[in-house]
Specification:
The complex is a heterodimer of chains A (about 270) and B (about 250).
Chain A: E1 3-14, E2 17-28, E3 32-36, H1 43-50, E4 58-63, H2 72-78, E5 79-82, H3 94-104, H4 109-122, H5 138-150, E6 156-160, H6 168-185, E7 188-192, H7 196-202, E8 205-210, E9 213-218, H8 220-227, H9 232-240, H10 251-262
Parallel strand pairs in A: 3-7, 3-8, 5-6, 6-7
Antiparallel strand pairs in A: 1-2, 1-4, 8-9
Helix pairs in contact in A: 3-4, 4-5, 8-9
Chain B: H1 2-17, H2 19-39, H3 41-46, H4 52-81, H5 84-89, H6 95-123, H7 134-158, H8 165-178, H9 191-199, H10 201-213, H11 221-244
Helix pairs in contact in B: 1-6, 2-4, 2-6, 4-6, 4-7, 4-10, 6-7, 6-11, 7-10, 7-11, 10-11
The chains are: A alpha/beta (about 270), B mainly alpha (about 250).
């Protein structure tokens, strides 16, 4: 087995704050990998560096044989991503959002049509294909984003808290599809989540990050054995402590809050 | 090529779907055109400069173009806030093509807005001196629209959120409009004002509209074209550079 993601001594500093401090890890091809950590631990920053959105301060990354800092376009071709925050165009319809993505990733028109239909049927949004995304609920948007991330059949799919706000039915449905895709096509799955039982059930390998450093890694069984605990949740709490973390609000959060207030609670 | 087309198409779809934006952004130009056009008409005529309405319309067309164009460029901030920008930035296409598509789309929308204002002004009695030159006016409208969309894109690439938007409107867009000769003739101005109008690219845009639509020009159409083409190229280059540096 060869690693499809290899990270060595990765560091990201914002001014004098170190978000990621010298982390190294590898994800094998075809693996389902969970990246866990409390809020503000450095998960999203790491994902942004892996997906070419942020430049590392130092250290190296190889994703599908390419370096995101030096060869971003090659890297971008090989992954799909479902972001933590929504990233759909609200003023376009569900199908237009899918189509837009397909064009950006160079999926040929005929294939695009069949895959869009297949994926949208899978996430049960085919009936709503011509509705504007702004009419969708949070869960529907999430499902559409997952379908979109898979449209170009990436080698690696990043899912940043993909199941946040989804009901158990949708969550199960989504994971069984991803597991099937992982088995059939060998897609590597890299995800973050706050649901520990989800990580324990789905992931073959887990890494736990806190304060910008990886403090433990291995299978769920390894982690519980290492910490002498009964469940992954207990192991996680033992490793990261039980103090509640504060995350600073970003400009985005402030604007969203502002709009929420202005629109009288409607989003 | 597909990328540029789909980015362009997105801008157009968004524009045509938001009817309130179309109508809303017609209000201000119409108010200026009617209130000033009729209000100052008699003074202007008494000064021996002919019809103020004829003089004003090209200026108001320029106004609606600059407002719509800068606003289209600025929309990158919204896309950043609502996450859609990330979707385009992780796609395996160069930022230059994304920026080109967006800017062309924004410029097309701004030109359409200019055409609508021009059409409305005709309903109120505006008449171009030569109908055959109308297609040429379109070329210049698109050029001006490109210039200011690129400017908006450049600004939006360095702004984090919408807090700076009001600042841009008051300290950039408004001065650009008022100092462009949209409302008054450029000849016989006090030296400081004359100097300011000379460095305002919109002056050349509006001058070109006047040259084509009503046959009167301060700089001459050749100079207008040269200045507009140069400034547009510079803004496109700067805008693309700043856009390519965006980190999320």
């Amino acid at each position: 087995m060869e690693p499809i993601i290899e990270v060595k001594h990765l560091v990201k500093r914002f001014g004098d704050f170190s978000a990621v401090r010298d982390i190294s890890f590898a994800v094998e091809k075809g693996e389902i990998f969970a990246f866990l950590g409390p809020n503000g631990a450095g998960k999203s920053t790491t994902i942004k560096m892996l997906t070419t959105l942020l430049r590392p301060t130092s250290g190296t990354i190889t994703l599908a044989g390419h370096d995101p800092a030096r060869d971003p376009e090659e890297v971008r071709r090989s992954f799909g991503i479902v972001f933590q925050d929504p990233s759909l165009d609200d003023e376009l319809t569900a199908r237009e959002n899918m189509d837009f993505h397909g064009v950006l990733y160079g999926v040929p028109a005929k294939l695009r049509r069949t895959r869009i239909e297949e994926l949208m049927k899978f996430v049960e949004l085919w009936d709503r294909r011509d509705s504007l995304v702004k009419e969708f609920s949070g869960g529907m948007k999430r499902r559409l984003e997952i379908a979109r991330g898979l449209l170009h059949h990436p080698k690696v799919i990043f899912l940043d808290e993909p199941t946040l706000g989804l009901d158990p039915q949708t969550r199960n449905h989504m994971w069984s599809y991803l597991q099937e895709l992982n088995k059939k096509e060998g897609i590597t799955v890299f995800f973050t989540t706050h649901y520990m039982e989800e990580a324990a059930r789905i992931a073959q390998k887990i890494a736990i990050i806190d304060h910008g450093t990886i403090i433990a890694s291995g299978s769920a069984a390894d982690l519980t054995a290492q910490t002498g605990t009964a469940s992954l949740e207990d192991a996680f709490l033992k490793l990261t402590g039980s103090a509640i973390r504060e995350e600073e609000s970003s400009a985005t959060d402030r604007l969203r809050e502002h709009l929420r207030v202005r629109n009288g609670g409607r989003r | 090529m597909h990328t540029i087309y789909i980015m362009w198409l997105r801008e157009l779809k968004r524009y045509f779907r938001s009817k309130s934006r179309i109508i809303g952004s017609l209000g201000q130009p119409l108010l200026f055109m009617l209130a000033l056009g009729y209000g100052l008409g008699s003074v202007f005529r008494a000064a021996g400069d002919g019809s103020y309405f004829q003089f004003l319309v090209p200026g108001i067309v320029g106004m609606s173009i600059i407002f719509t164009a800068i606003f289209s460029g600025i929309q990158i901030i919204w896309d950043r806030q609502f996450g859609f920008l990330k979707e385009t930035l992780v796609a395996p296409v160069s930022r230059l093509t994304i920026m080109t598509g967006r800017t062309l789309g924004g410029a097309t929308v701004a030109s359409i807005q200019g055409i609508i204002v021009l059409a409305i002004s005709m309903a109120f009695g505006f008449r171009p001196t030569d109908w055959w030159l109308a297609p040429l006016a379109l070329v210049f409208m698109l050029l001006v629209a490109l210039l200011f969309t690129a400017l908006g894109t450049g600004i939006a690439s360095v702004l984090e959120d919408m807090q700076g938007f009001q600042l841009i409107m008051n300290f950039l867009v408004m001065p650009l409009f008022f100092l462009s000769g949209a409302l008054f003739p450029l000849s016989g101005l006090p030296p400081i004002l004359a100097g300011l109008t000379l460095i305002d690219p919109l002056s050349y845009g509006i001058d070109s509209f006047r040259a084509i639509l009503v046959g009167s020009s301060h700089f001459g159409l050749g100079v207008d074209f040269l200045v507009l083409a140069l400034v547009t190229s510079a803004f496109l280059a700067i805008g693309s550079y700043l856009f390519s540096k965006i980190q999320i």
